[in-house]
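Our working data are protein records whose layout never changes between entries. Instead of coordinates, the fold is spelled out as a row of discrete tokens. Here is such a record, shown just as it appears in the course material:
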Amino acid sequence: MLGVAAACLLALVGRLCYIHAAMAGPGSRIALQLEQQQQATMPLPARRGEILDVEGRVLAGSQERPSIFADPSLLEDPEPVAEALGAILNIRRDELRRLLTERNADGTLKRFVWLKRRVEGPEAEAARAWIEKHKILGVGILNEPFRRYPMGSLGAHVVGFVNIDGKGMEGVERRYDSILRGTSGSITVCRDAARRPIWPAPGQDALIPPRDGMTVKLTLDAAVQEILEAQVSAAVTHFKAESGVGIVMNPRTGDVLGMASVPTYDPNRPGDSPPSARRNRCLTDPTEPGSTFKPFIASAALAEKVVKPGESIYCHSGLYVVGSRNLHDHHPYGDLTFEQIVIKSSNIGMAILGQRLGNERMHRYLSAPYGFGFGSRTGIELDGEDPGMLLPLRRWTTFSTTSVPMGQEVAVTPLQLATAFCAIVNGGRAVVPRVVRAIIDPRGEVVEDFSGAQNGRQVIPPDVAEYMTKTVLVGVVNEGTGLRARLPNYQVLGKTGTAQIARPGGGGYQPDAYTSSFVAAAPASDPQVVVLIMVRRPQRSIAYYGGTVAAPAVREVLARTLAYLEIPPDKSPENEPKSAWLRPTRATD
């Protein structure tokens, strides 16, 4: 009996030696099986970088939440697991059964499936307690980074959101996804028979540490953004409009301090809102600008010296016949000075300026690369920007000569309009709008800094820009269609606009459909802030002129923003002509 036992032991030893020497060498099938059974590679997710406003307030950050996973190949019986976890996680049992029996293309059971990701509150605690109690091999919990937007919908169209896998889908989250997401790492561990990790596996590549994402600091100021969103939303609600947009910019640097679009959405729950609410209309929705376009033509006319300051122009008493076309003003005007043409928003006066300029010069001043940049993307660091519409010069006709100066036959985005207005009020220099101020690495060091003034091209001479700013556009607010934008301590300048909405596909305009706009800056002595608000389809029975719908909202944004930024006033209430507040605002553009 001892001999037989010894022989069996020798046979087993020989078998082990054979397996070790002949079958378990590097790269052999058994060696690979051993490695798969004894070792496991666990992901080490990188932490996504934060998105901050200009003052360092967190607009987007990351937390961790537990996610439930399973290894179907290790489950002896998936039925009780599906029944128990289905009740805890509020998932249908047949759906969990499908996940727990899912197979690869070669017919083998999958080694990893998510049962439910980023479980919250009581569900997570109940699932953890059940897993720890039953100790079922093949079910576990893994903490995953979870994106949170602590300020909710504030700045949602700029910040954007991520999908369930943490990939940026809109806004800054999408444009800077590669910078924000970082690089995930991994750790290879040795496991016991219950597949529990016990120690790191040997080898240089056992631990690959994750590299956290960088932080993106925006030019947006959460306080200004809140002011802007509140006023745009109030205007849309009060006038029962379809939508509204607003932009606040620094005309010197091109920094966007606020960018709002109504309706909006909560990036914490983007699926609860329709795609139309997630669209950044400041970038994606070009429209005819109407009378807000007139300052650009007037500036070009002054720059080309086809008109002189104070020059009187006959406006044909409200009816101007150009070939087969009849042009009208809302009120019949006779002689108007150049300044009054802009202040009173005379279509006929602007048409005459367009005729003096001619199509070639007018097109050069409006288009890129030498003019205000209409018809081209501004270059802002956000995806989805529409270039607007400025037809090539060869397609301009004699109709264009008189239509374009009135803000017709062109389409501009709100961002294009605000950016071009910055060029008038900052001394005639073009700027590129920007929403990103700096890129910061995980150690807190600034990698890239985009702050500071821009050295843009000179679009119009400085003296023309100064005259338009301090005389013409100031007159629009003090005695023209922008009276409702006046402030007691700051001299406001700006231009109103009321544009008809074109029919889809062309063929005229939609009945009783308007876009009411006002673009302004303050203080006139040294403009620090540009504000644009556009309200689409206000209910005509309430009001639809830009001076009535948009100007009061712009006034509130300017007043609160200038106070918040501690910009010194440039006039005193004692010098305010009180009669101007009582003068009727016959807004006609």
